[in-house]
Design brief:
Helices cover 43% and strands 18% of the residues.
């Protein structure tokens, strides 16, 4: 069997499963998810054994200590996967919601109702817990899923999926579509373009990982791709900002978890506040060992300030303003008011998450309306762009696209809709 034939069979099976999934009740889906959670905990020993093989592969591939840690499954992480499935089971069913209900003058009643998307391909790197997260969210929203993790996690991913399928089958018997959750069985890179060429079977692709992976997937795919390339997030401290609030927000947005996509990469400070605020925040950032890449105005202010600990200050290049560091590095620029801040963000940003700190509501409203990003905040950290923090219970990723889902993608974002028409013999004149 050729690679294309293999991927076609995988996708065909998923499409057939998606038809059956769409007919499952909320009670049935939740029963299966709870059984899957129990099974993951029961299979902890086998999961750790499969993961040990993957860790050895990772070491042979030369993965860093941080990447090996992301790959590792231990009792705590297996318990967290199971807990995640139970949380998804507790969430409202996103399928069957009536989004619109209208009756036309001729008596024809029209309802807009949420439905599953169909077959969703998830492509991700390293962390095997994503297998359980993605599969459970797709299952609850009535979608069949095809999972492609990194080759270093193949044994873990396969066993997680197999465990979930076995548990679902045991819980629902013949009502459970056995191909509802599948893992691409080969590490061959050419499997992805082959799979994503099958527009008659695959409805959507969601890549999760670094910018290189996401761009490669988007460029080769013939099916729609929901994505975010990177998170170049900003905090703008306005002249009317409360300095204590601004300090807390800046430190949280940059330093709480600098390697995530909603961490701040550029700090913008309004000129009237810069002379007092920049030395203050630079001291706090220096305590966290954050390197600052600054424009000329910020450099002059900081170099003139006698402060300890002394910040690591370097001149910012043009490319720096576009860069997602995922590290303790922060760009700093002094701007002339909110309009300049908005212009900077819309030019250099990635349409992910941006924030203004200000006591002036009129200025804040201009910022909220003007910044073209998936999430825009007033007096809050960018770190809140997350499905759990938004009250979604879980998320399958963040989208910076403007058509379809945008921002954290929870269960509702994994549905489409269709129109139902209820008539009594109406014909169009």
């Amino acid at each position: 069997m050729t690679l294309l034939e293999q991927m076609t069979e995988l996708a065909r099976q998923a499409k057939a499963a998606s038809r059956l999934l769409a007919g499952l009740s909320t009670v049935e889906k939740n029963k299966a998810l709870l059984a899957m959670a129990d099974a993951l905990e029961r299979e902890a020993v086998a999961l750790k054994e499969a993961n040990a093989r993957d860790l050895e592969t990772g070491r042979q591939l030369g993965l860093s200590a941080a990447m090996l840690d992301r790959l590792r499954l231990d009792d705590k992480r297996i318990a967290a996967m199971a807990r995640g499935l139970r949380e998804v089971a507790a969430l409202p069913d996103p399928v069957g919601r009536v989004l619109d209900d209208r009756t036309r003058p001729n008596g024809l009643r029209l309802q807009k109702v949420s439905v599953p998307i169909g077959v969703v391909v998830i492509i991700y790197e390293s962390r095997p817990n994503v297998t359980a997260d993605a599969a459970s969210l797709c299952f609850k929203s009535g979608n069949a899923t095809i999972l492609r993790g990194g080759k270093e996690a193949l044994h873990s991913n396969r066993l997680i999926a197999e465990t979930m399928v076995r548990a679902g089958r045991a819980a629902l018997g013949g009502r459970f579509p056995e191909h509802a959750i599948q893992v691409v069985p080969t590490p061959d890179r050419e499997a992805i373009p082959a799979l994503l060429s099958l527009t008659q079977y695959v409805d959507l692709c969601m890549p999760r990982g670094g910018e290189g992976l996401i761009r490669a997937v988007a460029e080769c795919s013939k099916v729609p791709v929901i994505k975010h390339y990177k998170g170049v997030c900003h905090v703008y401290v306005d002249r009317e900002a409360d300095p204590d609030m601004a300090e807390a927000i800046v430190l949280n947005a940059k330093c709480q978890r600098p390697a995530v996509c909603n961490a701040m990469e550029t700090l913008l400070v309004d000129r009237p506040l810069a002379a007092s605020f920049l030395p203050r925040i630079a001291r706090r950032l220096a305590e966290k060992h954050v390197q600052l890449r600054v424009d000329e105005t910020a450099a002059a202010i900081l170099n003139a300030a006698a402060s300890e600990p002394k910040a690591d200050i370097r001149p910012a290049t043009e490319q720096d303003w576009f860069t997602e560091y995922n590290d303790y590095i922060l760009n700093v620029r002094v701007v002339e008011g909110v309009e300049a801040a908005v212009a900077h963000i819309n030019h250099y940003g990635s349409a992910h998450s941006d924030s203004i700190v200000s006591r002036d509501e009129a200025v804040a409203r201009r910022f909220l309306a003007g910044v073209d990003s998936a999430a825009v905040y007033w007096n809050a950290s960018t770190r809140f762009t997350d499905g759990g923090e938004f009250g979604m219970g879980a998320e399958i990723g963040i989208s910076t696209d403007k058509v379809g889902a945008r921002g954290p993608m929870g269960l509702e974002e994994l549905t489409s809709y269709k129109w139902l028409g209820f008539g009594s013999g109406q014909v169009r004149e």
